[in-house]
Write a structure and sequence with these properties.
Strands 1, 2, 3, 4, 5, 6, 7 and 8 form an eight-stranded antiparallel sheet that branches. The relative contact order is 0.26. By secondary structure, this protein is an alpha+beta fold. Strand 4 and strand 5 form a beta hairpin. It is built from three helices and eight strands; from the N terminus they run E-H-E-E-E-E-H-E-E-H-E. The chain has a single domain, classed as Pnp Oxidase, Chain A, CATH 2.30.110. Helix content is 17%, strand content 45%.
Length: 135
């Protein structure tokens, strides 16, 4: 049964720090919801993700920082984490260090598109729901 909790349970952190894709939902400037499949990370109780500087996601998050992220275990879809919160920081991805870290995790190599500046979105959770599976 899903529960609302204060932090991501230790037994589910791997969903945010492994190679599971995140479903990231932002509110567009016109007020619509837009969900993007994105690489995600988790550090110090915060979710992190990235996009190129000037992207529609970045513009949306600057206008409205509310965001939702969910990840679902590919092997057990009843094992998942859903986080809603706010982007509390947008920082440059200096030397593409963050996207390279994620690219190595998800693809096994450094990020290929080296000519675009990128930024990192730091998400502070307001609400976390999760389920550890059926069994």
């Amino acid at each position: 049964m899903p529960t609302a909790i204060d932090e991501v349970p230790a037994e589910l952190v791997d969903l945010l720090t492994g190679s599971t894709l995140g479903h990231v939902t932002v509110i567009t400037p016109k007020g619509s919801l837009a969900t993007h499949i994105m690489w995600v990370d988790y550090e110090d109780g915060q979710v992190l993700t990235s996009s190129r500087v000037g992207s529609a996601k970045g513009k949306a998050l600057r206008a409205e920082p509310r965001i939702a992220v969910s990840v679902v275990d590919r092997a057990n879809p009843w094992r998942w984490v859903s986080i809603s919160g706010r982007v509390v920081e947008i920082r440059p991805d200096t030397d593409l260090a963050f996207i390279d870290k994620l690219s190595r995790r998800y693809t096994g190599r450094d990020y290929m598109m080296r000519t675009m500046e990128r930024e990192v979105f730091v998400i502070e959770p307001d609400r976390i729901r999760s389920a550890t599976g059926r069994g």
